[in-house]
Design a protein that fits this description.
Shape: globular
Number of helices: 10
Order of helices and strands: HHHHHHHHHH
Helix content: over 70%
Strand content: under 5%
Structural class: mainly alpha
Largest sheet: none
Distance between the termini: 38 Å
Radius of gyration: 16 Å
Number of domains: 1
Number of strands: 0
């Protein structure tokens, strides 16, 4: 059953509604337009309704496997794997040649489910920071370390802290190629096109 939860989480994470919605509206995939297959890219390419729907679905992809794992009493590495599986699926989708999105919304869902009372206020701070900077990744830059610090200070169970660290690590790992490209781009921080 544990393996089924992890495998199911990966397969669920691998479904990218952004690709379906953008292809429906534009005839192209987000990658073909130069966009990330996430809610912000869908918002720009297919409109706000599809962007919100994509974000909600991606968050739910992170919540569902962690919820099932908690209900089944999964602990240790199995719990960590259940939290990481949808993020891995979203970032490296089996359905799209192991391409995917950046995993922000899916990670938000997993982290909220791992530790709601610490991650929810951290995500609110991240959303505000993202709105102020008009740069979607600011949500994770602010929320994830803040939530993790709150988890440690409040002495949350080690399995949950390890799961949160693992999800954040996967997100950072996925961002590295994009971040390196942006740092090399002289217009970093001054670009009118935000993701």
């Amino acid at each position: 059953m544990k393996l089924l939860v992890v495998a199911g989480g990966y397969l669920l994470g691998s479904f990218l509604p952004a690709v379906v919605f953008v292809k429906h509206r534009t005839g192209q995939t987000p990658w073909e337009t130069g966009e990330n297959p996430g809610s912000a890219g869908v918002w720009r390419l297919a409109g706000p309704s599809y962007g919100i729907l994509t974000g909600a679905f991606d968050i739910a992809k992170g919540i569902l496997p962690v919820t099932v794992a908690r209900q089944l009493g999964m602990e240790g590495w199995w719990f960590v794997a259940s939290a990481c599986a949808p993020v891995i699926g979203h970032n490296w989708s089996i359905f799209y040649g192991f391409r995917g999105g950046r995993g922000l919304a899916t990670a938000v869902g997993a982290l909220l489910c791992i530790s709601w009372s610490e991650m929810a206020p951290a995500c609110v701070a991240g959303i505000i920071a993202s709105w102020v900077t008009r740069w979607t990744p600011t949500l994770g830059v602010v929320a994830f370390p803040t939530g993790l610090i709150l988890m440690i200070r409040r002495e949350v169970e080690h399995d949950r802290i390890l799961a949160a660290v693992s999800v954040i690590f996967l997100l950072v790992l996925r961002q590295l190629p994009w971040l390196i490209e942006k740092v090399q781009d002289t217009s970093f921080g001054r670009s009118s096109r935000r993701t």
